[in-house]
Amino acid sequence: MNVICKKMLNDQLSKMNMNYELLSVNEIKIREELSTQQIKELNSTLKEYGIEVIENQKNALVQKTKDTIVDMVYNEDNLPAVKISSYLADKLNHSYGYIANLFSEVTYTSIENFIILQKIERAKHMITNSDLTLTEISHKLNYSSVSHLSNQFKKTTGLSPSVFQKIIVKRRNSAANS
Amino acid sequence: MQHDPLFILLADDDEDDRLFFKEAFDEIKMKTKVHTVNDGVELMKYLNSKDVVLPHILFLDLNMPLKSGLECLKEIRETKALKDLSVAIYSTSGSEEDIEKTFVKGANVYIKKPNDFSTLKRVLSEVISINWQYHTSGLNKENFLLSI
Lengths: 178, 148
Hints:
The structure holds two protein chains of two kinds. Chain A contains nine helices and two strands, in the order αββαααααααα.
C-alpha cells in the first residue's frame, strides 16, 4: 500500500514539475512557493486518489495530534507508560500547552474530550461488532472498571451501552427487512 | 484560525422557536450560518432541489403540520443523496420510547427541548461540536447517536 502510494505521489508530483521531497507517506515538503493555480491543480490531482491536502503547518500538527491519539486508542500495546500530555509533547516536538491550545482552536473540542470520544467510538464498534463483554471491552480500553466505562459512555452519548446496542441492532434489522 | 462557517438548516413551524434557535447560534463560539424552513414540505423541497448545498447538520422539529419530522426523517434516509446527512431531532417529549424510536428511524441526535435559553445554547453548542468531529475525523456515522 505504502509503496503504491509513494509511487503515485512521485509520478504525479514530477508530472507537475514540482521541487519536492517525500518525508513520509503522508507528508510532502515542497521546496518552492506554489501559485494558487498550482495548489488547485495539486488538490484536484490528489483528490482523484482520495488524498486530501492539508496545506498549513498548524493544521498538519493538529492532524498529527489526532493520528497519534487514534493510534494510541486503537493499539492497546501502544498505550504510553507516561502521562498522555508528556507523550504527545514528546512525540510531536512541541509543548503540550501549545498543542492543546491549537487543537481546541482548530477542532472546537479539547484533546481530553477528543480522546474520550475516540475511546467511546471504539467501544461502540466492539459493542456492535464483537462478542466481547462490556467488562472485556473496559479492560481493552484501559478503564479502571466496567462502571467507569458505562458512566463515560452514558455521559458522552446520553445512552447506556445496552440501549445503544439495542438501537443499532433494531436499525440493522429494519434495514435488512426493507 | 479561519473556518468556513458551519452551515445549519433548521425546520420548525413555530416562529418563536426559530428565533430562539437563531439567537442561540448567534451567541455560541462556533461561526455558523443558519438557514430556516417553516415546515416539512418546504424542507423536503429544499433538500431535493437541484444544486442544493447540503447543511453540515439539520435540526428538525418533530411536530410540524403538513409533514412531520419523522416523515421527513424517513424520506431523508430513503434518499441516496441524503442518507449521510446528520439529523438532529428535537421534541418536547423525553420519553425513552420516543427517543429509541427516533434513533431506530435514523436520527443521529435527539434533543429534549430545554426550557431556558442558556441550556439551549449549551446543548446546541455540544451537538454541533460533536457533529463536527464526525465530519472531520472520519468517524463511523452509523454509530453517531447522541441523546441530550
